[in-house]
Design brief:
Layout (H helix, E strand, L loop, with lengths): L5 H38 L3 H16 L5 H22 L2 H20 L6
């Protein structure tokens, strides 16, 4: 025979542990997006785009997790602009670095269900 309250406490712990896992996952998503935005900032060759990436990184670290899709989409638009800027200037090495970070950002967004496939 089970003690009174035994299953409730067990379920309570499971709920608490589930909540902690969900919070951890949200923190992971925000943190990983922040790291990718930092990498994008490192390959930014234009001060305007660099400022935009900084702004997006701050948002990734502060907005609710449900807004991370918007931040990811915005970051991809900035990455696209950076790539086109590099191509226009004939900066092949810059384009390659930017395209690599852009691909990582896109893959992360899809895998994290922040972007459609």
């Amino acid at each position: 025979m089970a003690r009174p309250g035994g299953p409730v406490r067990a379920r309570g712990r499971a709920v608490v542990q589930g909540w902690a896992a969900m919070v951890m996952t949200q923190q992971y998503l925000a943190g990983e997006l922040s790291v990718l935005l930092d990498q994008l900032h490192e390959v930014a060759t234009c001060p305007q785009h660099s400022s935009e990436v900084d702004r997006l990184r701050r948002q990734a670290e502060t907005v609710p997790v449900r807004a991370l899709g918007w931040v990811t989409t915005s970051a991809l638009h900035v990455a696209d602009a950076l790539c086109w800027d590099s191509l226009t200037r004939g900066d092949v090495a810059g384009f390659e670095r930017q395209a690599e970070v852009s691909a990582q950002l896109h893959e992360f967004g899809v895998c994290a269900a922040l972007l459609p496939e």
